[in-house]
Each structure stands twice: as C-alpha cells, then as structure tokens.
TrEMBL record:
Compartment(s) where it occurs, according to its Swiss-Prot or TrEMBL record: Cytoplasm
Cofactor list: FAD
Domain LIM zinc-binding: 738-804
Reactions accelerated catalytically: L-methionyl-[F-actin] + NADPH + O2 + H(+) = L-methionyl-(R)-S-oxide-[F-actin] + NADP(+) + H2O
Record-given protein name: F-actin monooxygenase
Keywords carried by this UniProt record: Actin-binding, Cytoplasm, FAD, Flavoprotein, LIM domain, Metal-binding, Monooxygenase, NADP, Oxidoreductase, Zinc
Predominant location: cytoplasm
GO CC, alphabetical: cytoplasm
Alphabetized GO MF terms: actin binding; F-actin monooxygenase activity; FAD binding; metal ion binding
Similarity comment: family membership: Belongs to the Mical family.
Enzyme Commission designation: 1.14.13.225
Broad enzyme group: oxidoreductase
Length: 816
C-alpha cells in the first residue's frame, strides 16, 4: 500500500504526459496538483513558484529529464532567474501554438500569465513545416518527452493539434493559467473606483478572468484578432483557390509506403500535373502532402477545373461570392480532394481515403483564397489612462500572415513572439514608452523578410533578445515621430529621452492621443516674404524638439553657439547619424564640424565650406543679431529637410518595409489600389492592394509568387530586406535548378539549401573526402581543373589547388 501511494504522483505525471486532448490535459494536471497537495492560489503564479514546487516533488527519471531541459533554458540571463518581470501581469487571447509559446516565455520571465481560449478542444489537424531553429527551440523545452516521434529522422513537420498539446503541458508546468470557453470582448479602462486595466469577457461571471488586473495584453487569436486599435492591410495577388484536407491515418502497410510531397509546383514538375489532369481532369498549380497523425494535403486548384468538376456552381468575379458556401457543392469538393490524394499517393483502387473530423464534426476539408494575406501595420501600442499604462501587442497570424508555400508560418510566428517577449521585458523595466515602441516597431520591420538563410545559424544561442537572432539589426530604424501616435495617453508628458525619464502632468480634460498635446507646425514655411513670421515658426519648431533634450533656446543662445540645438534636431529625426551623448558643450568647433559633415555628406544639404566658415565665425561673435541670422539659416535647412521632405520619405519607407510583398520592387511592377474596408467585428481598418503586371494588367500567378519567395534565398545576400529584382517573365528560366547538386533528386521549396549558388539537400552537404556532414562555416570548395567538377571538403583537408596541379603536370612532362 505505501508503495502505491509513493508511486501515485509519478503515475499521474505519466498520465499527464500522455494526455492528448485539451480537456484531459487540464484535468490530469488538476489531479496531479491535488495529489501533490499544491494550492495554486496560495503559492501564487509568478516567479516560477509552481514550477519550483513541482520539481521538488516529482523525481521520476522522465520528470528529471524534463526539469533539466527547462532549467537550462531558464538560466538565460534575460530571465534573471524568473524575477525579470515579477510585477508584470499578462493576458493572452488565444491558445494557438504562438500564444502558448509566448505564455511560456512570460512564465520564464517570472510574470503571471493568463491565457483565454474561446474553444474547448484542439481540433486543427493541419501540419506545420518547422524551420530548423523551431525544432531546436522545442527540443530544448523537452518536446520529445511529451511526443517521442518529434523531429525524428528527416521529419520537419508536426500537426497544429499535437504542437498545441506539447506547449500546453509545458505552460501548465511553468504556472500559466489557461481557461477554455472564454471569449475576449474589449478592454476596460482604469477608473477612480477600479484603478487597474481589466477586460470584458464572456461569460461575464467567470470567477478568475472577470476580476483579473493586467498591464500587458497580447492578441494571438488569428487574422480576425479581437484587439481594437490595430490597423491591418491586405495584399492580394491573382485569385488562387487553396484546398486543405485531412484524412484518417490508419497506419496500414500501404499507408506507410506513401511518399510525402513536401512542396512541388507545376512549373517545376509539369509531367506530374499533366498526368493528373489527363487521368482525373483535375488541374492544380501546387500540392503538398505530409504524413502525420493524419494524411494532410494542401493544393492549389484552377478555377476552371473546379467549375468543370462541379465543385463551384457559378462563376463570379468577386472571390468572396465565388467561394461562398451557397456556391460550393461540398460533396463534389470531397470527391475532388479524394481523387487528387489518390493520384498523389499512388494508392490502389481498393484503398479509400476517410476524412478526419474537424471542430464541427464534419469532414475536415475546406476551400479558400490563400493569396489574401493580412498583416498589421504596427506590432504594438501603449495606452495610458489615469496613470496606468498597458502594453498591447499582436503575435502569430494576428500580426503577420505567412505565404503558405514557403512554410514560414511557425518560423515567423516564433520569431515574432520572441520579439514581443523582449518588448514585455523592456516595458516591465519601466523604460520610456516611446523607446519601447521604437525598438519593437524597428524589429517588426525585419520580420517579414526573415528566412533561415539570412538569420543567425547558432540556434542554441537564440533568446528573446533580437540581437541573438537577426544578423542585421538596427533597433532605431523607426523614428520617434513615426511611432509617436502609438503612445496614446490622457496626460501631457514631459520627456527626457536621454535620461530615460518621464514626468506626467495630469490635466482635467478628456483623453486625447499623445500627438495632440503638441503644437502643430505647418509643413511649409509662409511664402509671403514675412521674415518675422518665418523666424518665429522656425524657433517654435526648434524649441518643441530641443525641449525634450532639456535645452533652452529662447532665453539663452548658447545652445545655438555650441551647436547642441542643431545636433538635437538631427538626433531627434535620425538618431542613427549622431551620438548626442558624446557631444560636449565646451567644444563648439568640434560640434559644428560634426553637424556640417552630417548635413553635407548624409543629408545632402547645400552647405559648402565657405558657408560653414562664415556660420562658425558668426556663432563665435558676441553680436546677438549675427548669431540669430546664422541660426535661422541652419534651422531653415534642417526644417526643409526633416519636417517637410524627410517626414514623407520616412513614412513611405515605413509602409514599404512592413509589406509582405514588396510591391514597389521591379519583380512585381505592381499597380497599388488601396481600398478601405471595415471589419464589423473589430472595427479594424484594412487596405486591399491588388498586385498586377504591366502586361495588359494581367495578374501574377501563384507559381510566380512561389518562385519569387523561394528565389530570394539565392539572390539575396545577408540583407534581411533585399528582394529579387529579376523580371517576372524571365523568372522561370533564370531560376536555379530544383534538383540536388549531389544526388540529383528533387528538392522541395521548403528544403532548399543553397551553397555556392547550388541547391542541395542538407543531408547531401558532406565532405567529398571523409564524408562527414558539413556546415556553411566549415567547408572549402575544390574545382577540377579539367572537368570543372565542383566538390566540397572540410577545411582541414589539404587539397591540390589548380595551380599546384598544373605545376605537377609540367614536372611530369619534363621527366618524360
């Protein structure tokens, strides 16, 4: 009997590890805590308190191996042993893979984290392609303890449902609170009677979330996110109808012999698609097949083929009307998907595919327009009411929808959540709100262009710090003026950005946006010849900026004479050009030289050497009039550049940098047609941009979009925002081969590994001498002088270079 009692906690832990549904995972964890006599309300939720108790009471070999992995992750310096965000309370809307993974990061930081999910089950069977760093990250968290088949051999994918189960278990062990059947409605601002931020949920009478106070709110509930205040844009190419379907995997001998198709397009393998069309009358552009818990297929079908097969009843020019439920015959859609699956797997006529069930208990097959891609204009915002600030952010598909043929959904989702966790850490450290927003939005500009090829390859060193993941990181890419509207405050703050200090002066007025508290300066100077009015406007503009740097200019002209006022203006708009803290007031000549060099070399302003000397001599004089006139000359140059011309350029650069598809690049030659749409659910403004060719307005094909995304891995260098500039017409003929350089077998788009402009499998990148696996940092190339054959070798091998070969041949001839 005592033995049974001793083993019971470990047995319950084993049941918890093997649980495979949302409800059973939650119930088994409650049972485990009850047997261990752990009162979660009594011990608290932050500072990893629950995790510390579990590690002391569960001592089986499996639990110890899990604790070792989580402890190693928790030792990263950013977490500060679980006290970095000890006073922070986080609420995450959505228990998808990205939302749960972010909850784990918040728990490791020591914050209290509550996750609300409107569903009561995990039913998404769709399979995610995993980037190498995602696999490393999940292994380091102990994913194989919960799912032994994870990332075995060449398998680099996992079903969404299985990934949710893994992350849910880890989150619970770290003390994350997760509540099902709870829907987020809106935030509730602080008042005199209720001084903290809360939210309105359904059901209203929920015992925990209805009274939960938080200061960080994250939306992780998909493209139709429920957080207000975030604008979204939509990028749309030519109509491309995607079909996803899941079939039950009975694990029979015939099913085990099915070969996966990790991604193939018609332009790469026309024979396959031509045979498919001849035998079944099904015309596809792409197809993907992954074998997991289910047989998962994704395919892109031609509209005419769907009309001919009776799937779509009537042809409409509008995509929403075309794919509406009343215009789709569901039984024919199921037959269409089954025929394509049977041909792709080369199954026998006796084998019948059986559809898996979705959340609604029907066949798990759906049809949609996948070229409709949404992304948020901004990743975060900070709202202040009655002295209480809240950081709001988006992650996952709420932030950035990925283009599915590239298999980047999980990869970009994890990158984005790490960036958000870094912003939460900065916010918890009470850094200035504008500084937090500048860094978060600057990092967000890099996200859409990130790939495994242009990010750092030492995955073991990855952390929430963006510097450990991005190769070319500029955390000040955005200017304060660009993101100032994201700080929504009901007070008028006095800001000292250099000392990282903010003093809020409360006013008895209705809440207004942060930008409305500043004096509005005209974008152009008056042209009526009134010099006094011009000078007044310039001085007011300068005073508004330098006031944040604790510089006085109206009562004292020293700030002009030592150049600090002018340098402050440049630092305000372009902090990347000048280190303001290094300037010294008692060295005016040096300061002016720095100022003039930047104005002439970086800003291309008309200030030659003669004018520079004249201005410096005027500033050194004791005559106020000469100082004033010289100051107005410099101010007018800076005003014209920054406040009028440069502001428009910066806004245009900000819009283009966050785009999923660079519609201004030569590869697309697009015509942008913004269309404002209103989402009745969340009142978020969306912009619809159609991407067309210049050739008679013909629209871009899906296969060309696939080619554009995948070719950027070869054509781009280390720059994360570079794009392929080849014309779309010649793109197919100029693409690198899609067959492995070594084994000559086909390489799917997701598995491309580019070395010396050659495409090959990762497993084929081996030393030609010793046959050991190579990496991009430890190889050398040898080219045969006669045949021109290229081979790869380890760096330490001594190879006969072409020059030495020629010398040896000459010596042999002399001997003969």
């Amino acid at each position: 009997m005592p033995t049974d009692v001793i083993n019971k906690p470990d047995e319950l832990f084993e049941i918890f590890v093997n649980a495979q549904t949302f409800k059973t995972i939650l119930h088994s964890f409650d049972d485990l805590c009850r047997v261990l006599r752990i009162d979660r309300k009594l011990i608290g939720y932050g500072k990893r308190s629950l995790y510390k108790i579990l590690t002391s009471k569960l001592t089986s070999w499996k639990s110890k191996s899990l604790w070792a992995k989580i402890d190693k992750r928790g030792l990263q310096k950013e977490y500060e042993n679980g006290y970095a965000c000890a006073d922070t309370k986080v609420c995450i809307v959505g228990a998808g893979p990205v939302g749960l993974r972010l909850a784990i990061e918040c728990a490791l930081l020591g914050a209290r984290c509550v996750v609300v999910e409107k569903r009561d089950r995990f039913s998404r069977h769709n399979v995610l392609h995993l980037w190498p760093y995602v696999i490393t990250d999940l292994k380091n968290l102990g994913a194989k303890v919960f799912y032994g088949k994870f990332a075995t051999g060449q398998i680099e994918h996992i079903s969404i449902r299985q990934l949710q189960c893994i992350l849910l278990k880890i989150a619970l062990l770290l003390g994350v609170e997760i509540y099902q059947n709870v829907t987020f409605i809106d935030t509730i601002e602080p008042t005199l009677t209720q001084p903290n931020w809360r939210a309105h949920f359904e059901p209203v009478s929920h015992p925990v979330v209805s009274t939960y106070d938080f200061n960080v709110l994250i939306g992780a509930d998909g493209r139709r996110n429920s957080l207000h205040g975030f604008q979204h844009k939509e990028f749309r190419g030519k109509l491309a109808i995607g079909i996803t379907c899941n079939y039950v995997n009975h694990h029979t001998r015939e099913e085990q012999n099915f070969e996966e198709i990790s991604g193939v397009a018609k332009i790469y393998n026309p024979q396959f698609f031509n045979e498919l069309q001849q035998q079944t009358s099904i015309d596809l552009e792409n197809i993907v097949y992954y074998k997991n818990e289910t047989h998962y297929f994704v395919m892109t079908a031609k509209k005419q083929s769907l009309l001919d097969k009776g799937v779509i009843l009537q042809d409409y020019p509008d995509a929403a009307r075309l794919l509406a439920r009343d215009n789709v015959k569901f039984s024919q859609l199921c037959n269409f998907a089954c025929e394509a699956a049977q041909f792709a797997t080369k199954s026998t006529s006796q084998f019948k595919f059986e559809f898996a069930e979705n959340h609604y208990g029907t066949a798990d097959v759906q049809m949609f327009d996948f070229t409709s891609l949404f992304h948020a204009v901004n990743a975060s915002r900070i709202v202040e009411r009655n002295g209480k600030q809240i950081l709001m952010g988006l992650v996952g598909d709420s932030l950035l929808e990925s283009f599915w043929p590239t298999g980047s959904g999980a990869g970009l989702g994890f990158f984005g959540l790490f960036d958000t966790a870094w912003a939460i850490l900065k916010f918890a450290k009470h850094e200035h709100p504008l500084k937090v927003l500048v860094e978060r939005e600057s990092v967000y500009m890099l996200l859409s262009q990130s790939t495994p090829e242009n990010t750092k390859n030492n995955y073991q060193l990855y952390s929430i710090n963006p510097a450990t993941r991005y190769q070319s990181l500029n955390s000040k890419m955005c200017t304060i003026e660009e993101i100032r509207h994201l700080y929504d405050s009901d007070s008028i703050p006095t800001i000292d950005m250099n000392n990282n200090h903010i003093i809020s002066t409360k006013t008895n007025r209705t809440p207004v946006r942060r930008t409305q508290s500043f004096k509005q300066i005209p974008s152009t100077l008056p042209s009526n010849g009134n010099n006094t009015e011009k000078e007044t406007l310039l001085v007011d503009w300068c005073e508004e900026i330098v006031d944040t740097y604790a510089i006085e200019i109206k009562k004292d002209s020293k700030a002009f004479q030592n150049s600090l006022a002018f340098c402050a203006i440049i630092h305000h708009y372009r902090p990347d050009l000048i280190d303001f803290k290094s300037l010294q007031p008692d060295r005016p000549i040096s300061n002016f030289q720095i100022l003039f060099d930047i104005m002439h070399d970086q800003l291309s302003l008309p200030i030659d050497r003669k004018l520079q000397n004249s201005l410096i001599l005027s500033m050194k004089s004791s005559i106020e009039e000469r100082i004033r006139q010289s100051s107005i000359v410099i101010l007018q140059l800076l005003y014209t550049h920054f406040h009028h011309d440069h502001q428009e350029q910066q806004l245009q650069r900000r819009r283009s940098s966050t785009a999923l598809l660079d519609v201004s690049s030569p590869i697309l030659q697009a015509i942008q047609k913004p269309i404002d749409e209103t989402n009745n659910n969340n009142n978020n403004m969306t912009t619809n941009i159609n991407i067309n060719n210049n050739n008679g307005g013909s629209t871009i094909k899906v296969s060309a979009l696939v080619a554009h995304y995948s070719s950027s891995e070869i054509s781009s260098s280390s720059s994360s925002s570079s794009v392929n500039s080849h014309n779309l017409i010649g793109l197919q003929s100029e693409r690198a081969p899609t067959f492995c350089f070594y084994c000559k077998e086909k390489v799917s788009i997701q598995d491309w590994f580019v070395v010396e402009k050659n495409v090959l499998h990762v497993k084929c990148f081996k030393c030609d001498t010793c046959h050991l696996q190579l990496r991009k940092t430890n190889y050398q190339v040898f080219i045969e002088p006669i045949t021109g054959k290229m081979t790869f070798h380890c760096r330490y091998h001594k190879l006969n270079k072409p020059e030495k070969v020629k010398e040896n041949e000459k010596k042999k001839k002399r001997v003969c």
